[in-house]
């Protein structure tokens, strides 16, 4: 019961904020969750949790939370649109299989470079091919920085320490899936709520069928507390809370400000991973992080009014 006064106090303070201040608060919440995502996904390797089991928890818990809400709202007809299945296959199942596998085999910093860097590159290229969406000058500069950084990183890692491996390839594949997913979202007009629910539910249906047919569960080999942490974080915080807070942030302060600030999270996470997980940052990775941050976030737009 002590929770109720605290909740009332928070809502009172929240309502006293301006729309812009609320937008920055939603952005901060999104940034915290997105930043923790890479760290939590990487923890699967340390806790030896099978990727396929984590995905079942993610999709299953999210669907279990959202289905009763849709039933109560009598708002489920959009689920029968085949476009939702395509979105689930690209932006959820495809993306998750690759990104979780990437974090299982490679450090957090590698994910920041090869995922957060390739996503805007693929999104721009696919958007041009599918929607004939032109690439403006500022975006072109950002993408050029990304391409140069990717080439430098790949060559340096192969020739130098030889640490370019399957995890990095997984991150690039996940960037491709997320880029395609982002373009399809622009092409098809769905609300944020419908996208979240449709993608989560169809992902649970499709993935559960695949899991039952082809995967041998390994839940008994993992500590229940670790499974609970992963299931709640990925199924509720990432799929539901971060989606809603980001949508609210975009609505109140705009997609550029919200996206730029929230996308700082993975870069911060790569630094936190050094003391928290004992991961190393060498000169090549630091240069890669700086290059990707400049190319993906395009900070100069803050000074030229976009």
From TrEMBL:
Keywords: Cell membrane, Membrane, Transmembrane, Transmembrane helix
Topology term for the membrane: Multi-pass membrane protein
Primary localisation category: membrane
InterPro entries named in the record: AA-Vitamin_Transporters, EamA_dom, EmrE-like
Superkingdom per UniProt: Bacteria
Pfam families: EamA (PF00892)
Transmembrane segments: 24-43, 49-72, 84-106, 112-131, 143-163, 169-185, 192-219, 225-246, 258-278, 284-304
Domain EamA intervals: 23-154, 166-297
Subcellular location field: Cell membrane
Designated name of the protein: DMT family transporter
Species of provenance: Moraxella canis
Taxonomic lineage: Bacteria, Pseudomonadati, Pseudomonadota, Gammaproteobacteria, Moraxellales
């Amino acid at each position: 019961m002590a929770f109720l006064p605290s909740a009332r106090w928070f809502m009172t303070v929240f309502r006293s904020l301006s729309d812009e201040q609320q937008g920055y608060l939603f952005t901060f919440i999104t940034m915290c969750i997105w930043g923790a995502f890479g760290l939590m996904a990487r923890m699967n390797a340390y806790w030896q949790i099978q990727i396929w089991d984590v995905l079942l928890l993610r999709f299953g818990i999210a669907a279990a939370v959202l289905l009763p809400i849709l039933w109560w709202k009598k708002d489920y007809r959009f689920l029968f649109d085949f476009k939702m299945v395509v979105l689930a296959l690209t932006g959820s199942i495809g993306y998750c299989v690759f990104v979780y596998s990437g974090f299982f085999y490679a450090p957090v910093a590698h994910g920041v470079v090869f995922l957060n860097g390739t996503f805007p590159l693929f999104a721009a290229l696919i958007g041009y091919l599918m929607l004939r969406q032109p690439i403006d000058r500022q975006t072109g500069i950002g993408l050029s920085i990304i391409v140069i950084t990717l080439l430098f990183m790949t060559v340096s890692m192969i020739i130098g320490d030889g640490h370019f491996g399957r995890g990095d390839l997984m991150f690039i594949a996940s960037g491709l899936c997320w880029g395609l997913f982002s373009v399809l979202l622009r092409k098809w007009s769905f609300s944020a709520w419908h996208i979240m629910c449709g993608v989560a539910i169809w992902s649970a249906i499709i993935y559960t069928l695949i899991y039952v047919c082809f995967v041998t569960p390994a839940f008994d080999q993992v500590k229940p507390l670790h499974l609970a942490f992963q299931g709640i974080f990925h199924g509720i915080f990432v799929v539901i809370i971060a989606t809603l807070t980001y949508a609210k942030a975009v609505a109140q302060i705009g997609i550029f400000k919200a996206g730029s600030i929230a996308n700082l999270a993975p870069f911060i996470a790569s630094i936190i991973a050094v003391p928290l997980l004992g991961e190393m940052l060498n000169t090549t990775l630091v240069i890669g992080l700086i290059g990707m941050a400049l190319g993906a976030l395009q900070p100069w737009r803050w000074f030229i009014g976009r």
